[in-house]
Amino acid sequence: MTIEISAFAWVPPFAQGYVKDLRPRWALEEAGLDYKVRPLAGDDQNAAGYRAWQPFGQVPAYRDGEVELFESGAIVLRIAAQSKALSPRDPQDAAQTQAWVVAALNSIEPKVDNLVFPSIFHAGEPWVEGWRPHAEAVLETRLKSLSKWLEGRDWLTGRFSVADIVMATVLRSLEEEPIWARFPRLVAYLDRCLARPAFERALRAQLETFAENAPARS
Ligand SMILES: N[C@@H](CCC(=O)N[C@@H](CS)C(=O)NCC(=O)O)C(=O)O
Fold first, then answer.
1. Is 88 in the pocket of ligand 1 (CB under 6 A)?
2. pLDDT tens figures, 143-192
3. What is the mean pLDDT of residues 17-42?
4. Which structural domains are found in the chain, ordered by start?
5. CB-based contact 105:167 (threshold 8 Å)
6. Which of 20, 38, 108 to mutate to test the pocket of ligand 1 (most atoms within 8 A of CB)?
7. 19 C-alpha to ligand 1 centroid (Å)
8. What b/e sequence results for 7-20 when a residue is b if at least 16 CB atoms lie within 10 Å of its CB, and e otherwise?
9. Helices 162-171 and 72-81: angle between axes, nearest 10 degrees
10. How far apart are the CA of 168 and the centre of ligand 1, in A?
11. pLDDT of 88 above 90
12. Does the structure show a pLDDT above 80 at 109?
C-alpha cells in the first residue's frame, strides 16, 4: 500500500509552508518513499473516522501497509525506521537520534511556541507585548544550550538524520523573531538543513496542495 498522510486542503497564507505535515513530507522525500495525501476540508477533521485515526482532529496522520499512527514525531520516526538515510543503525547513534527528536519536540518547541503563538493568535491584545520578554528569556536559555551542542557539528548527531528534520521545522518559526539573529550558529545550521533538496520538494508539495484547493475569490 502506498503510504498515506493527512494534510489540510487549505490554510490561511500565514500558516502555509508551516503546517506540520511538512515533517513527514520532508522525511519521505529524504527516504525516497512514495506517498499520497489525504486532504481534509470543511469539517473532515471532526468526522468519527478521522478521529479514530487522529484523536485530536489534527494533521498529520499517517498510515502504511502495516501501521497507522498520529503525532508528527512518531510519524517521522516510523519513516526513519524504513530508511538508512534518516536513522543510523549503530545503537548509540540511533538512540541519540531519537533523543534529539524528542528534545526538539519537548524541550525546544514549547518555548518557541510560547514566543511565537501569542503574536499570531492574539495579535493586538494588550498582554502580548508584556509576555514577550519572559518568553524570550526562557527560549534564549534553550537556544544557548542548543548552540553550544552544535559547536563543531554540522548536524545534531554524527550525520543528517530525522532529528534535524524535526529541529529545523521547529526553529524555522523563529526566523522573523529578533532573538534569532543573536544565534549565528543556529542560523547557519538551519540554513544547512533548509538547503537540502528534499526540504524544497516537501515545501513545494505542501504549497501545491493549498494552491489546488484555494478558495475561489469573490
Ligand atoms: N503534536 C502534534 C501537533 C499537530 C498540530 O499542531 N497540527 C496543527 C496544524 S500544524 C493542526 O492540525 N491544527 C488544527 C487543530 O488543532 O485543530 C504533531 O506534532 O503532530
1. no
2. 999 999 999 999 999 999 999 999 999 999 999 999 999 999 999 999 99
3. 98
4. 3-85 (3.40.30.10), 91-197 (1.20.1050.10)
5. no
6. 20
7. 8
8. bbbbbeeeebeebb
9. 150
10. 17
11. no
12. yes
Ligand 1 pocket, 19 CB below 6 A?
yes
> Rounded to whole angstroms, how far apart are CA atoms 172 and 166?
10
Please check whether residue 114 is in contact with residue 139, taking contact to mean a CB–CB distance below 8 angstroms.
Answer: yes
Report the nearest-CA residue for atom 9 of ligand 1. Answer: 19
Q: Is the dihedral of CA 7, 202, 83, 76 positive or negative?
A: negative
State how far the Cα of 21 lies from the Cα of 169, in Å rounded to an integer. Answer: 10
Helix, strand, coil shares of the chain as percentages rounded to 5?
A: 60, 10, 30
> Could you tell me how many residues make up the chain?
218
Q: How far is the CA of 20 from the centre of ligand 1 (A)?
A: 7
Q: Write 32-36 long-range contacts (CB < 8 A, 24+).
A: 32/83, 32/85, 33/3, 33/79, 33/82, 33/83, 34/2, 34/3, 35/2, 35/3, 35/4, 35/5, 36/2, 36/3, 36/4, 36/5
Which residue puts its alpha carbon closest to atom 11 of ligand 1?
58
Which numbered atom of ligand 1 lies nearest the CA of 60?
20
Please report, in angstroms and rounded to a whole number, the separation of the first and last CA atoms in the chain.
40
Per-residue pLDDT at 218 exceeds 70: no
- Residue type at 183? F
